[in-house]
TrEMBL record:
The keyword Plastid does not apply. It holds the Pfam family ADK. Belongs to the adenylate kinase family. One of its GO terms (molecular function) is ATP binding. This is adenylate kinase. The lineage of its organism: Eukaryota, Viridiplantae, Streptophyta, Embryophyta, Tracheophyta. It comes from Senna tora. InterPro entries: Adenyl_kin_sub (IPR006259), Adenylat/UMP-CMP_kin (IPR000850), Adenylat_kinase_CS (IPR033690), P-loop_NTPase (IPR027417). Monomer. Its EC number is 2.7.4.3. It comes from the Eukaryota. It catalyses: AMP + ATP = 2 ADP. Keywords: Kinase, Nucleotide-binding, Transferase. The keyword Transmembrane helix does not apply.
């Protein structure tokens, strides 16, 4: 309970800086809202990324965060930092994460509150959340304390998700995220194929690559199962509030990034920003 009260305090203190991208007619479709969203340089977005493990939430959230100048806050990273710190929660978290289960709402909200408070103290405003909310309860708590402008729901077929999770690599030195999976699925029965080139590290990272301990086949399958059970209802939660933008990834970063920017009406954002300067 204390953690939730803290989240209330920290998110309310930053929410006044947010501008609503979506208009108040919540029943309207988020896709058309997103097209009309007039992002300006003084705007601090409060966006959420949803999507299955391996879909690329981290990649696209991090790119958008650099483009828009707002922090990218991934609760999975907060959990991994806590694990690495060998703090009081670390043994308990390690068991949960390595089984592919969700950490309790209390713990995740406590980690998120601390992160938001630390950002607030540094003058951060706006955010792109990645990996939160993952349960209806988390969504309700978030909705109760702040205005989420837009929820981007990334989609990719399940066989690709598994391959992408198994191909994930992190450089133990620079922390860079890479992917060695090479996806080339031919279209069949009227369904389109999909090609995703690997995202290979530079030569100096090659010998330092590590794999997340929860990116094994059994654990990824369990995480996908849990996503369908606990997190898919969160999509419906935001859809019914007119905040959900569905985005089916057409391929790797080179094809998907420009199309995502287009869907968000951000394709000429840099030009708009320089024109306004
Ligand atoms: N919002 C959350 N609620 C509960 N557990 C979470 C949440 N975010 C992250 N976790 C925990 O951290 C793990 C890693 O999260 P993340 O890096 O987002 O993985 P994924 O690749 O599955 O999206 C999850 O499997 C879960 O145990």
């Amino acid at each position: 309970m204390a953690a939730i009260t803290r989240l209330v305090r920290t998110t309310s203190s930053i929410s006044y800086l947010a501008r609503r991208c979506l208009s108040s007619s919540a029943a309207s479709d988020a896709n058309s809202h997103a097209h009309r969203c007039n992002t300006s340089p003084d705007r601090n977005v409060q966006w959420v990324f949803l999507g299955c493990p391996g879909v690329g939430k981290g990649t696209y959230a991090s790119r958008l965060s650099s483009l828009l100048g707002v922090p990218h806050i991934a609760t999975g990273d907060l959990v991994r930092e806590e694990l690495a710190s060998s703090g009081p929660l670390s043994a308990q978290l390690s068991e949960i994460v390595n089984q592919g289960k969700l950490v309790s709402d209390e713990i995740i909200i406590s980690l998120l509150s601390k992160r938001l408070a630390a950002g607030g103290a540094k003058g951060e405003s706006g955010f792109i959340l990645d990996g939160f909310p993952r349960t209806i309860r988390q969504a309700e708590i978030l909705e109760g304390v702040t205005d989420i402008d837009l929820v981007i729901n990334l989609k990719l077929r399940e066989d690709v998700l598994l391959e992408k999770c198994l191909g994930r690599r992190i450089c133990s030195q620079c922390g860079g995220n890479f992917n060695v999976a090479s996806i080339d699925i031919k279209g069949e029965d009227g369904n389109p194929g999909i090609i995703m080139a690997p995202l290979l590290p530079p030569a100096h990272c090659m010998s330092k690559l590590i794999t997340r301990s929860d990116d094994t086949e059994a654990v990824v399958k369990e995480r996908l199962r849990i996503y369908n059970e606990k997190s898919q209802p969160v999509e419906e939660y935001y859809r019914s509030r007119g905040k959900l933008l569905e985005f089916v990834l057409p391929g790797g970063i080179p094809e998907s990034w420009p199309k995502l920017l287009q869907a968000l009406n951000l394709d000429d954002y840099e030009d708009k920003r320089s024109a306004a300067a």
